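Q: Hi! First time doing this. I have a protein sequence and I read that you can turn it into a structure. Is that right? Here it is:
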Amino acid sequence: MTLEKKRAFTRRIAQANKTQIITILYEMAMEYLDAACDAFETDNMADFDIEVNRAQEVINELIRSLHLEYDLAQQFLQLYLFAKRELIMAITRHSVVPVEYVSHMMRRLHEAYLELEQKDHTPAQMRDTEMVFAGLTYGRDSLNESVALSGASRGFTA
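A: Yes, that's right. Below is the predicted 3D structure, encoded as structure tokens:
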């Protein structure tokens, strides 16, 4: 994942509510899985392993986000654990098939969460974050961003 994509994800997370954060995590997992597939196609097994491990870390974060006292969360836990097992198999066997399967699963879950996003109108999880304003300035094709601090303290509220 490029530095610019990481910055974009960071900006989006800073302004996201709980549902949007999960959606962003799915998008990050898909980015890493796509990068793993690209590495496999170029026969770069070192990058393949790195990207699959990064996707596993995102899945670990999805697991940590679950509220396991609910039955639905238990079902999501089983899906995530299955995805992790598949990705472990992909690394040990150097096979792209499990990666593609997990990528398809993540895309389906992402679609479902996009629908949930439309119904979730809760405020952003992080308070007092930097506001980012973007627009086309100083030229026809250049995008410049401006950051404005909204307060002295920044942080995450749970």
